[in-house]
Write a structure and sequence with these properties.
The chain has 161 residues and is α+β, with helices and mostly antiparallel strands. It has 3 domains: 31 residues, no CATH class; 43 residues, no CATH class; 45 residues, no CATH class. 35% of the residues lie in helices and 17% in strands. A 4-stranded antiparallel β-sheet has the order 1-2-3-4, with no helix packed on it. Helix 4 crosses helix 6 and helix 5 crosses helix 6. The termini are far apart.
Length: 161
């Protein structure tokens, strides 16, 4: 590992037997950078856990990658990285399809039926932007006519028939 020409020459001097403190002070670099030894990196192509992930998916086909990681840790005592499990399951086509519940957002306003007038009443609240007013309308579903409309402001209440 090299952080530049100063560090490279400093490491060479230390390797020749010069005192580390003196070399670091002379070249004005930190002493800790001369003591640093890079750890060898593990092989990223390590596929030793892939078979365990695949077997866990075979035993628990309804489990997603997070549950597979938990299951391996809990029942097999194996620590598996979640990203590795996701990658392996994606490569093999083992991911579980997400089930999202569809919420019906249709408003069934027209489906309320009343056999006779004055049986079912509906209310509607609306805000009037001409000041701090709130309007309330009540409808008789049987006759489909407005019965009462009230407009409430901060100061007074008016009723219209």
């Amino acid at each position: 590992m090299s952080c530049g020409p100063a560090h490279s020459s400093a490491r060479e001097l230390v390797a020749q037997g010069k005192e580390t403190k003196l070399v670091a002070e002379t070249l004005e670099i930190s002493r800790s950078s001369l003591y640093y030894q890079r750890q060898p990196r593990r092989d990223r192509a390590d596929r030793s856990r892939d078979q365990e992930i695949i077997l866990a998916c075979g035993e628990k086909p309804a489990y997603g990658y997070r549950r597979v990681v938990w299951w391996l840790k809990r029942h097999r005592g194996r620590m598996v990285n979640g990203k590795r499990a996701l990658r392996v399951m994606r490569e093999r086509g083992l991911l579980v399809r997400q089930h999202r519940f569809q919420i019906s957002r249709r408003k069934d306003w027209g489906k309320v039926e009343a056999p006779c007038p004055n049986l079912i009443w509906q209310s509607d609240m609306t805000k009037v932007w001409a000041g701090p007013s709130v309007g309330t309308a009540r409808f008789d579903t049987g006759s489909s006519q407005s019965a009462v409309l009230r407009v409430r402001t901060h100061f007074a209440e008016a009723a219209f028939l």
